[in-house]
Amino acid sequence: MSDKIIGIIGPTGLVTDIVATFYDLIFTSEKIVATTIGWPGVNSLSKKKDTELQELPIDKILLNDKKNFEVHYSDIHKIKIKKPGLLIGAEINIITYSTNYRFYIKEKKAFDKHVNLVRSVLNDKLELI
Fold this sequence. Notes:
By secondary structure, the chain is of the alpha+beta class.
């Protein structure tokens, strides 16, 4: 089976230590691919049309930047999505058996769309908080 792009959540910010790196989270039929986008929104794949996304080869996206990484669905223990507050955006925690990735999403309007995307591929591992 070929790995197909299902949808994108982005731009998001991944905070490690004190540094924030901005990513698009690409949800495929087999995994999540985190791809760096530079300054938020400048190079975001979330602005591309669905037809354009289907033509992007996942392997080339991963090799495009050394900060890009993938998380296979089978490696995910739980994915927690925290609802946005009045002053802050949503938070997505991807918890694997070895690592915890915490992404922040500034845009609040697309929250339901993001939840539905995650639910479509990881419903049994999704927790809304």
